[in-house]
Write a structure and sequence with these properties.
Structural class: alpha+beta
Shape: elongated
Oligomer: single chain
Distance between the termini: 22 Å
Strand content: 25-35%
Strand order of the largest sheet: 1-2-3
Number of helices: 4
Length: 95
């Protein structure tokens, strides 16, 4: 049994880009993501620890967006890697 969590239109201001102005002024970004994960254990146990936390996922996104990068693709990769590292039960991440 699989489910997904979604974060839609998370708005953050960050300082990514190659140009000096992008690093100084920054830009507004809108992040959408989904994380697939198995829910069978949580369904049986009724324990929060057996599911995924939206709040923890949002915190990871904020942390990765706060680290400046030249390429937004690199930021997206870091977000995916952070989510998969924190939520080892996750089977897929889309950013």
């Amino acid at each position: 049994m699989t489910s997904s969590i979604y974060i839609k239109e998370m708005r953050l201001h960050a300082y990514h880009g190659v140009l000096p102005q992008e690093r100084e002024v920054g830009n507004d970004y809108i992040i959408n993501l989904s994380v697939d994960y198995p829910i069978a254990t949580a369904c049986r146990t009724d324990e929060v620890a057996d599911t995924m936390s939206y709040a923890d996922a949002a915190t990871l996104v904020r942390q990765q967006m706060a680290v400046p990068s030249n390429l937004i693709e690199h930021v997206a990769y870091r977000v995916c890697a952070a989510l998969l590292g924190r939520f080892t039960q996750a089977t897929a991440v889309t950013v």
